Amino acid sequence: MHELSIARSIIGAVQKEASRKGAATVRQLELLVGPLSGVELPSLEFGLQVLSRGSVLEDAVINITSPKAEGKCLDCGAVFELTFHYAACPVCGSFRTEVLSGKELKILSIVIE
Fold first, then answer.
1. Residue pair 25/112 in contact by the 8 Å Cβ criterion
2. N or C: the chain end with fewer CB closer than 10 Å?
3. Which long-range contacts (CB under 8 A, 24 or more apart) does 49-53 make?
4. What is the pLDDT along the chain (113 residues), one digit of tens a residue?
């Protein structure tokens, strides 16, 4: 369950930023976690809930946004929604595709007090 280590890293980064700004409390945290990132959202949410106890994030509202995963065909140029990394182009059937979005895992914003 690597989501616990990801949650620990997120909390550490948020605590570092809050400390740098002299903040005692984080009110809100917004994360972007793509469906192709390899992160299971329920496990990440659980990890954040458990590991944030006693930290500046203890009472924070944590919002996680998951964008659509999109790919582009390198043969015909079609842009299409992906459900997994190695999908064939729905237009021409080519497997020469690249992932445009969906692998994100980042902190978008922190609201501190």
1. yes
2. N
3. 50/7, 51/4, 51/7, 51/8, 51/11, 52/11
4. 589 999 999 999 999 999 999 998 999 999 999 999 999 999 999 999 999 999 999 999 999 999 999 999 999 999 999 988 889 999 999 999 999 999 999 999 999 98
CATH number for position 102:
3.30.2320.80
Nearest to 74 by CA among 57, 93, 59: 93
